[in-house]
Amino acid sequence: MTMKPINIYLIIAIVLAGCNQKQKKENFQYERVQENSSEVIQNTDLQNTVILNSNDAMLFDKKVIKVSYGENITLTLNHVGKIGKDFMGHNFVLLKKGVDVDAFAQRAILARDNEYIPEGDEIIVTTKMLGGGESDTIVFDAPEPGKYIFICTFPGHYQLMRGEFIVI
Ligand code: CU
Question: Which of 18, 20, 41, 150 is 20 to 30 A removed from 124 (C-alpha atoms)?
Answer without folding.
Answer: 41
